[in-house]
Amino acid sequence: MILLLVWACHGPPDGADAPRDPWLDPEPPALADENDDPSVFEATITASATTWPLSPELDVAGLAYNGSVPGPLIRVQLGTEVIVHFENDLPAGFDTAIHWHGIEGNNASDGTPVTQDAVMPGDSFTYDFVVTRAGLFWYHPHVRGAQGVFEGLYAPLVVDDPDEPALRDLGVLPKDERVLVLSDLSELAGTPWSVEVDNPMEIMNGTEGEHLLVNGREDPVFEVAAGEPVRLRIVNSSITRFWRLAVPGHTLYRIGGQGGLLDRVRVEGGTVGATSGADATQVDLGYERGEILLVPGERADVVLVPNGDVGDALELVWKDFARGRHGMWMEGDTMVMGDVADDGTRPSETAATFRLVAGDRAGWALAEGDPVLGAVGRSVGAVSTAGALDWSGDRAMTFDENMDMWQDADGIWQMSTELHVDGAAWMEDMMGGPSQPEAPTAVHAQIGDVIEWELRNTSHMAHPLHIHGFSFQPISYEHVDEESGSITTWDVGYDEYIDTILLPGDTSVFVRMPLADPVGGGAAAGRWMRHCHIFQHGENGMMSELVVDP
Ligand SMILES: [Cu+2]
Asked: From ligand 1's centre to the CA of 532, what distance in Å?
């Protein structure tokens, strides 16, 4: 008590650093490498309960890796062996594990309920994997993921491309770089909501928190130099929310994303030309040209050139995307079901602010089609389809959903939600360990196979699809109009490796996926999850397996 009084009278000791403004340039703390071997990164990550400031008015009691939300940034060179000693110090009963989203070919460290037993509070587990692709990845629990991620268990992982220093020297890549981890949260009196697992409508639409978080803060401010390009490495760690991002008056140029840098600069959104289709020659992608759309689990590598005067503020705006949210309502005496009226039209919100400060490289220009990897004579390259397996049509991977409603004996309307991969729900409690029987819908292939896979969504709702362990290249789309039955197709038209993709409603995307063994020794063999990345969907049945045999 006496000490507290003294503190109150005198304030912080002389010479102490002023407390850092948590809303100015917040960034995930870097995780320190404790191993002297330059080819090995080794550290300890502990999951525990924490309290952190969401906004100047609101502290939230959530969960964290190493005490911070987002958790610590792991940054390594391509080819590094990453060893993480994971300790679960979460509250009693909160079993967990870490999934390394997008990391390929290390089945034993994939961190899912079919590759390891859950880590109970007080227990530990060591992950040991090699990073074999440059890009932006992230890590989070795949056991109780909806609740754990919602409460703060998510963090970025960057694998640097060896040519990045040369590309910065050439002026292709900006020197200023920020990692932005996007999320959202609902809370009551400073405690995160329990993510619904019993309410069928909440499961169907997923939980979208009303607090938009960028690096764990509401409406943070990032200081950027006027006229100088800034590279934004963006992760969507939300359990449901689609992030359609815009900086009004500016174009967000995409130079890379999930699986590393692109051949050329892209401007996304707007419309694309159809390759066939009775009704349309242009396909509206549902967001405007110059915006970036990130579905849950997705990442983007973006360049912004902030134009304006010193002191100006640019807004990073979240805009709604029509993702097919469902609802039910009374019409006369009858309950009906359909898309909610405000789907895609919810009010825009400012998620963060860029405040312009003085710079010395004004006049920097960037244009669609400018070379990125091409500037150092490289290209992503297309997957060879020689001998590829044709998994289209009857062999497609299919997301489907079924909602039903009825009046019970008391006349009360009841409803149910079913979420499927390939016609069946699986892994609804996300538990079981390696002895968990294989999913009835598991599909098998072998290391070395190339799969030409149709990823199909027969529902009217958009779902983000994620496949563990391997990256794929999207090639083309096929949309079936629900009412007329007419088919429209369009091509992707460039090469990129990704692991998470938006599947629009009533649409198939055709991808090519090589089942490589990049670490070697058959480390890529094993049971890999394939699922919807709206966490409540995956955990309520929209989950299956790709089993890769040696
Ligand atoms: Cu889904």
From this structure: 5
Q: Which of 543, 511, 276 is nearest to 392 (CA)?
A: 511
99 C-alpha to center of ligand 1: Å? 19
Instruction: Say which residue the tokens 């709206």 belong to.
Output: 534
What's the 542 CA to ligand 1 centre distance in angstroms? 7
CA of 195 to the centre of ligand 1 (A): 15
Distance 529 CA to ligand 1 centre (A): 14
The Cβ of residue 452 has, within 10 Å, a number of other Cβ atoms equal to: 18
Task: Give residue 120 CA to ligand 1 midpoint distance, Å.
Answer: 28
Name the pairing type of β-strands 74-77 and 155-160: parallel
pLDDT tens figures, 507-540: 999 999 999 999 999 999 999 999 999 999 999 9
Q: Closest by alpha carbon to 515, among 545, 543, 542, 550?
A: 550
- CA-based angle 496:498:504, to the nearest 5? 100
302/396 Cα distance (integer angstroms): 32
Over residues 366-392, mean pLDDT: 96
Q: How far is the CA of 533 from the centre of ligand 1 (A)?
A: 6
Count of C-beta atoms within a 10 Å radius of residue 252: 22
Within the chain, what is the greatest distance between any pair of CA atoms? 81
Kindly give the distance from the C-alpha atom of residue 462 to the centroid of ligand 1, in angstroms, as a whole number. Answer: 7
Tokens standing for 466?
């994620």
Using the mean position of ligand 1's atoms as its centre, give its distance from the Cα of residue 326 in Å. Answer: 12
The strand pair at 543-549 and 443-446 is best described as parallel
Q: In what order do the strands lie in the sheet with 463-467?
A: 443-446, 543-549, 526-532, 463-467, 500-503
Residue 17 burial (CB count, 10 A): 6
Nearest to 238 by CA among 195, 269, 188: 195
* Dihedral sign, Cα of residue 502, residue 103, residue 152, residue 25: negative
Question: The tokens of 401 are what?
Answer: 């959903």
Q: Model pTM greater than 0.90?
A: yes
